[in-house]
Amino acid sequence: MNRPTLRFAPSPNGRLHLGHAYSALLNARIARTLGGRLLLRIEDIDLGRVRPEFVAGILADLDWLGLRFPEPIRRQSEHFPDYAAARDRLAARDLIYPCFCSRGQIAAEIATREARGAPIPRDPDGTPLYPGTCRLRSADEARARRERGEPHTWRLDMPAALRALSEPPTIRRFSPDDGAMETVAANPGRWGDAVIVRRDVPTSYHLSVVCDDAVQGITHVVRGQDLEAATDLHALLQCLLGLPAPAYHHHALIRAADGEKLAKSRGSESLADLRARGVTAEDVWAGLGFAILR
């Protein structure tokens, strides 16, 4: 069997906060319990928001917490050709299609359907499902528009993807308390024709994460409950691409006093801010319910 391998995979679009610290420390504790290792991955495909100082800040914060990681550290921005190859494999099987619709066009189409009283299904995040406009375009039209250089995403053809499976996708879930495993059915159809390649880069979070987990030999994924529903889509991509599937555990989120989850976009206090006002790494460990390991 492969050595248990976990990963902590932050995005360098801001400074880490206590929610990140909890996830990183939980990953470290589980890796130690399993006799495995914990890798660090920098998920920096969002080139418009990534800043070198944020990468440096992540490394400084994790070092301050007492966490050490094997080298080299995988950075997604260095592996775009790998993700493009996975995209091409899906395209060769007609499981994805180029979508030329802008957000405004999609919103207008959905508004028109709503005005007619048509039911609009929504994905697990509450976003209306893409109505499938570009799935109905001919291959010749799509090719011509791509050759003209029209901006486009690549969407999963969900009906075709589900038909391509020899059996329904499943997800293995594990308990960090006793290691017990259970297998549950995945339901990727609720995501509709999800974007798996963005306009600006040859990948998406969904595509790159399943490719990276396979390349790095990740056996256990420990991440927040806000990503639990996305695991359905990841299970589908793993099946379509013939990739190994880790076992998953989705932990509760650290929340602010108002009940909202901590988030960079909300300006949640960062670990650097805590450090600046005299909070120690030991204080963070204890406050999050972890024993000091160093």
UniProtKB/TrEMBL annotation:
GO molecular function, one term: ligase activity
PROSITE patterns: AA_TRNA_LIGASE_I
Key word Secreted present: no
Pfam family for this entry, one: tRNA-synt_1c
Enzyme class name: ligase
Key words of the record: Aminoacyl-tRNA synthetase, ATP-binding, Ligase, Metal-binding, Nucleotide-binding, Protein biosynthesis, Zinc
Family as reported in the entry's similarity comment: Belongs to the class-I aminoacyl-tRNA synthetase family.
EC number(s) on file: 6.1.1.-
InterPro entries noted in UniProt: aa-tRNA-synth_I_CS, Glu/Gln-tRNA-synth, Glu/Gln-tRNA-synth_Ib_cat-dom, GluQ/Sye, Rossmann-like_a/b/a_fold
Domain of life: Bacteria
Glutamyl/glutaminyl-tRNA synthetase class Ib catalytic domain ranges (all copies): 6-271
Protein name as it appears in the record: tRNA glutamyl-Q(34) synthetase GluQRS
PANTHER family: GLUTAMATE--TRNA LIGASE (PTHR43311), GLUTAMYL-Q TRNA(ASP) SYNTHETASE (PTHR43311:SF1)
Residue ranges of the TM segments: none
